[in-house]
From TrEMBL:
One of its GO terms (molecular function) is NADH-dependent peroxiredoxin activity. Residues 2-162 form the Thioredoxin domain. GO terms for cellular component: cytosol. The keyword Oxidoreductase applies. Keywords: Antioxidant, Oxidoreductase, Peroxidase, Redox-active center. GO terms for biological process: cell redox homeostasis; cellular response to stress; hydrogen peroxide catabolic process; response to oxidative stress. The keyword Oxidoreductase applies. It catalyses: a hydroperoxide + NADH + H(+) = an alcohol + NAD(+) + H2O. This is Alkyl hydroperoxide reductase C. It holds the Pfam family AhpC-TSA.
Amino acid sequence: MLTIGDKFPAFNLKAVSNTDLPDGDFERLTDQSFSGKWKLVFFWPKDFTFICPTEILAFDALADEFADRDCVVLGASTDTDFVHFAWRNSREDLGAVKFPWLADNKKELSSALGILEKDEAVALRASFLVDPDGVIRMVQANDLSVGRNPEEVLRILDALQTDELCPCNWHSGEETIDVAKEVA
């Protein structure tokens, strides 16, 4: 699995951003689509499942918070663009999600990241915070049976953006660690 300090892999994937069927093809997003911005790329194993929509909706509830921090949210799974489209159209709440869903059906990005589950070859519940230079600054992977905490991902983004030392359970607006005071 790629880790902290690694470059996020190049990608060029179809994305489903709403419930409107395109005239031609779905839009394509690449690793360069949001140049100069932070990116949260989070994967779920399969569309039309049970834990995945709870995570998608929880990240969507914080999408404006991520945007306020100059961070683009991108969801992804190894399902196709048409499966994403069908799932978004099957549920009003998923249809209203603000961020695009990447279709990694060839498993190129998930393979490059090293996040394919060994038995089913679906993406793990993996999250990556990527800085504006394309460097991975946070990696989190959960067992397929356990959903993530999007508020914790947002807290980590806040901490990373301070460029300071942030203690355990630190939240935006709290004091960071001043090494000079600690060693004095």
